[in-house]
Amino acid sequence: MKHKYLYLLLPLCAVSSAGAATTMGGVTLGPISGLGANSTFAIWNTMNGWHATANPNGLAGTGSFPGTTMWAPQNSQPGSNESNTKLVKVSNGVGGGPYAASGSVYYGGFSGTPNLNGGTLSLSNASPLDNLQTVLFQIQIGEAATYDFHNHVLPVMSYTLVGDVTLHTLAAAASSNYHKLDNGTIEMPTGTEPLYINSYAMWFDFSEIAGDVESFSVSWTGVQHAQLYGVSLQQDDVAASGAILPVAVPEPSAVLLGGIGFLFLLRRRK
């Protein structure tokens, strides 16, 4: 499927209807294994805004296209075992912002300009796990004009410490774009480019931070016309490592080409 610059139609055609948790290319967000017994998990993966009677687990009160409504923080959904983390709308983008459409949170707006600020969301927690050492963040987001995050900037962590009013930042210690679902192509000035729905996992390491964490927030800015299908967050009081993140899954075409090459080498050796 090829996508032109028909961005004004995206609220109708770029999000799938879904009344339950989304699975993108076989990947449904879930807890990453390998954490301690006290780890917590919060998830948002029913990302539509249908009326509560039809979809009690969806996102409520987020407005409609172009998405300029500043909606209230959204509680974690079924599958979570903690409720302190909230999905928060931080700001709108250029001429629109993120809102819950038919099957995803859509970053609305009228522009056909690629890589335009579509608005900022965050997962924010004012009562973190005691002795917080590890935060794992996952996100599934669909590209628009080959971009998902504005300027390709990955989500960032900010936090405060008990007894300290300073807002600190913490870069991800490791990240993994562990699944790329083919979502067609788009005609760009450089030619035909692929589009993906990307599943990312990120590890934030608090084990070297001196002091107790009082609050934290993972925030990201999507591009206009991107689609958000799910986010999740895990906390643990045990230090982890980058090895805990999911490993990238090769594209089927790459696997096929690799297999053909291997068979060719076998034939040469015979």
UniProtKB/TrEMBL annotation:
- Cleaved signal peptide residues: 1-20
Residues of the region (Disordered) are 65-87
State which residue ranges cross the membrane.
Answer: 243-266
Q: Where is the composition biased (Polar residues)?
A: 65-86
Q: Which UniProt keywords apply?
A: Membrane, Signal, Transmembrane, Transmembrane helix
Q: Which residues form the Ice-binding protein C-terminal domain?
A: 248-270
InterPro entries documented for this protein: Ice-binding_C
Record's protein name: PEP-CTERM sorting domain-containing protein
